[in-house]
Amino acid sequence: MELNVVDLSRLQFAMTALYHFLFVPLTLGLSVLLAIMETVYVMTGRPIWRQMTKFWGTLFGINFVLGVATGIVMEFQFGMNWSYYSHYVGDIFGAPLAIEGLMAFFLEATFVGLFFFGWDRMTKVGHLVTTWAVALGSNLSALWILVANGWMQNPVGAAFNPQTMRMEVVDFFAVLTNPVAQAKFVHTVSAGYVTASIFVLGVSAWYLLKGRHADLAKRSMTVAASFGLASALSVVVLGDESGYLTTEHQKMKLAAIEAMWETEPAPAGFTLFGFPSESARETHYAVRIPWVLGLIATRSLTQQIPGIEELVAGAERNIASGIKAFDALQQIRSAGSSQAIPPAARQAFEADGHNLGYALLLKRYVDDPRQATPAQIKAAAWDTVPSVPTLFWSFRVMVGLGFFFIAFLALFFVLSARRRLDRYPLLLRLAVLAIPLPWLAAELGWVVAEVGRQPWNIEGVLPTVAGVSSLGATTVLATLVGFVAIYTVLFVIEMSLMLRAVRKGPEPDDAPEAELIPQAFAAAE
Amino acid sequence: MILHTLIDYDTLRVIWWLLLGVLLIGFAIMDGFDLGTAILLPFVAKTDLERRVVINAVGPVWEGNQVWLILGGGAIFAAWPPLYAVSFSGFYLAMFAILFALILRPVGFKYRSKRESASWRSGWDWALFVGGLVPALVMGVAVGNVLQGVRFHFDTDLRIFYDGSTLFELLNPYGLLCGLLSVAMLAMHGAGWLALKTDGAVAGRARAVGRIAAVATVALFALGGAWLWLAGMGYHIVGTIPADGPSNPLAKTVALAPGAWLANFSAHPWMLAGPALGVLGALGSLALLGSRSQGGAFLASSASIFGIISTVGLSMFPFILPSSVDLRSSLTVWDASSSHLTLFIMLVCAAIFVPIVLAYTAWVYRVLWGKVDARAIADDSSHAY
């Protein structure tokens, strides 16, 4: 296979983004868990909760630093590898990224230093505020990043400006309140909470198995199990909301996830298992549950969900309309002044302009979309189908894990409520083994979201092949190799430091028992 | 939304040009002392404890400071999308070098002192040094190349093409001069910070090295200016360009105009305050590093950075990124911004959040005020790096 700059740029972005997201979910969840633990410390005055906060804080710090280091790469890569994308949608897409820095990341990064260095420099309440600021900052950060990502999936509130040859914002409020972005935000953040909960649960279970730090481990497990259970429920419920919105905004993604080649009568069945074949355009050995998909996706018994073939036919119509828009655009641009634009061209662009992106899909085959042959149009329409087997399997493993987390966390919640956390070594062993699973689910979630967006950079607006920078393939290959090399080394170092810190365990906390009534409350009285 | 028309498009563009300067200067002052401290690390610290003192002088604050860079990237993306698209992809390998260094830096801070082994620690000390030196150098080199003009052009779809701007082409004499200026400037600034945050041998060495850096800053800055004048660098917009027109760089005509980069200073003599501040700040830092002053040298080097970066911006105005191969593709304040609405929204966000950020940053620095306590690091009683 000959690698071209588009594939290499995609590979580099996918690799650096998936790597970045190894650290993000733990930061999101653990920051909140730290804040909860420290709140208990401040309210009860029991030093063990301070010791817990410091211990999990050490692990948080090792993880956080790589999140920061790899996050800069994300912020810069749009301009580096996707310069036409950056030009084309920077007017909208840049804003949430800038606001993320201003509103969220500043908060998080400024206070995180104080979290580690400020224990002896502040009052208890002062330090607690610091910890909450870190948690708030990291979660707000996720909000703005997902507003940006949500817009790529569902580009609301923007219109194409022929004079500047780019998309420009017309309704910023619509960008903010984009339902896809909102659903993604809560789904992603809850997934981060689950990740951190299962991490804390697993590490604590290891201590119980080794008979070390039982006090700290049990308390940590109680917090993690209850917080995690609530989050795991919300991940599935909100993931379902995501699915519902996908029906509305990204029908092709849904059809590909379900490997639903043909439209079926409502309510559609859910394919539990099967082998989708892209060449045969059917799913072999499908095991189906009637009605379920229709209910999840449309929340009705009568509404049909379009299959892939029907959607491809729709894409073909959109391409035809896009060609008209492209033609009108050429007339508008060659007119020079706005008075000289032929009224027919203006009307045509108003009618078909929203499908301009579909004409750009043809750029893969022909330089001027207006010269495309029917065969090329058909091929471009089939290009709108993302990789069906990838989506089908990623989605099923992710959802399967999601249900497993609920059961698993519910079990530990019950054990902790009945004070039997240390009774069943087998379950503790399971908890240790389960540590990597939330990461697997989170990465697969991104695979579903972003592979499912293909062939688009911006759904329906800008094809991925058009968004890339005009760089040489060897240049991108060189940086890709460089990133893989440094990321691999750092991953090994990070894992070894994590394991060392876990093996070493919490620092002894010899500080005297705090007064029963914390100073903050005493002062308030 | 009609609200955004309260401020004219051209006014918003000038405001965002100023804010671009604020962000770059903010980054150079705030993260600059972290970078400068890392550059000084091999020169001012001889023992492991001294190195830890130096690292802990920036340990609690570098993460927050680095957000200036991230915010700078985001704000350029939001307010000047063509600039973001052209510069980040045009300087592709240079950007990669910066990223590589910036990945090493945080990891170096956090991981260095987690093991006792001397080779582990010295390896990370080198990573920290590289993490400070490379971004400082490469960003300076980039500015040197921007002043000369960069080899890029747009096609009619505003797709960007580069005519062989490899990494090695950027390392031309003038680019390297600016790169060295940037390293000297930040080393001077880092020395000012160490003079404030440390004492004893480390502070003494920082003051000595910082004075050399201050002299180098003045010399390289003057040399850079003289070279600019002798080489007659500069571009000029032919005819007029509507200041509130659409952001399409291809609508204007640009000519090479020898000496144009100095024309703004003769037309508007008040702009000479920029270079004057650059020189006087560095001289002030030189004098104050030699005295017993604590924070004075740091303030002086901050002023110098402010002056030097403003000088570059003012000399090029209204150009932001000139093209040397297709002159009309050059990006200027009047044709490389976001839409009117986006600039307005981003201004509102900046007006709300910048004061908040500055307020809590000041609070954090107040809490962390005081010299790094070497004894606390030695007996590991503080959560030190």
Summarize the helix and strand pattern of chain A as letters: HHHHEEHHHHEEHHHHHHHHEEHHH
**Radius of gyration of chain A from the CA trace?**
26 Å
Uncertain segments of chain B of ≥5 residues (pLDDT<50)?
none
What fraction strand of chain B? under 5%
In short, what is this structure?
Chain A is mainly α and 525 residues long. Chain A has helices at residues 5-44, 47-81, 83-117, 124-153, 172-176, 179-210, 214-249, 251-257, 292-298, 308-334, 343-352, 356-360, 374-382, 388-417, 425-433, 437-451, 464-467, 473-504, 519-524; strands at 158-161, 166-169, 270-277, 282-289, 456-458, 462-463. Chain A has 2 domains: 9-252 and 385-519, no CATH class; 253-298, no CATH class.
Structural commentary:
Chain B: It holds the Pfam family Cyt_bd_oxida_II. Chain B: Belongs to the cytochrome ubiquinol oxidase subunit 2 family. Chain B: One of its GO terms (cellular component) is plasma membrane. Chain B: It is a multi-pass membrane protein. The complex is a heterodimer of chains A (525) and B (385). Chain A has helices at residues 5-44, 47-81, 83-117, 124-153, 172-176, 179-210, 214-249, 251-257, 292-298, 308-334, 343-352, 356-360, 374-382, 388-417, 425-433, 437-451, 464-467, 473-504, 519-524; strands spanning 158-161, 166-169, 270-277, 282-289, 456-458, 462-463. With 525 residues, chain A is mainly alpha-helical. Chain A folds into two domains: 9-252 and 385-519, no CATH class; 253-298, no CATH class. In chain A, the strands form three sheets. Chain A has a two-stranded antiparallel sheet with strand order 1-2. Chain B has 385 residues and is mostly helical. Chain B has a single domain, classed as Formate dehydrogenase/DMSO reductase domain (Formate dehydrogenase/DMSO reductase fold), CATH 1.20.1630.10. Chain B is built from 14 helices and six strands. In chain B, the strands form three sheets. Chain B has a two-stranded antiparallel sheet with strand order 1-2. Chain B is globular and about 65 Å long. The relative contact order of chain B is 0.15. Classes of the chains: A mainly alpha (525), B mainly alpha (385). Chains A and B meet through α2, α3, β2 and α18 of A and α3, α4, α5, β2 and α13 of B.
